[in-house]
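FORM 12-B: Structure-to-Sequence Request
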């Protein structure tokens, strides 16, 4: 299963940016493989529509705002649900993960979809880049793929 985190790189809302950063930091520190989908990227328009159709808005919001978290195509929840699960040590259940999704059993190679163009990256490619769109973890080594 792939954890997908829908974010916005151009949000002017500091609270949204803080929440996005927290979710991505927790996933990275727990070595949970995840895909970051920037809904502000025009090439992700279909993915943004999918997120808005399947995610649920917070109590006072009209539309779902980032970050929104999915496991494959299953909606997991928003920041508040993620925070609760993290604080209650129930993150794997919240993310609908099995043990095989964590570092010990992660796949050695990954693919990244850039609006129809699929790239294949081995674990050692593109290490230490900060402009990641997709973050996979394998055997304790971070591997970043960027556009």
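FORM 12-B RESPONSE
SEQUENCE OUT:
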């Amino acid at each position: 299963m792939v954890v997908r985190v829908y974010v916005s790189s151009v949000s002017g809302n500091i609270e949204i940016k803080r929440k996005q950063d927290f979710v991505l930091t927790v996933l990275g520190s727990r070595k949970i493989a995840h895909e970051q989908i920037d809904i502000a990227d025009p090439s992700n328009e279909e993915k943004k529509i999918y997120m808005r159709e399947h995610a649920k808005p917070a109590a006072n919001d009209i539309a779902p705002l980032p970050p929104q978290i999915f496991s494959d195509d299953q909606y997991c929840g928003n920041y508040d649900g993620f925070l609760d699960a993290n604080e209650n040590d129930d993150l794997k259940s919240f993310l609908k993960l099995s043990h095989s999704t964590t570092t010990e059993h992660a796949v050695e190679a990954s693919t990244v979809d850039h609006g129809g163009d699929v790239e294949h990256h081995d674990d050692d490619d593109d290490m230490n880049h900060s402009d990641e769109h997709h973050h996979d973890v394998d055997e304790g080594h971070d591997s970043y793929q960027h556009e």
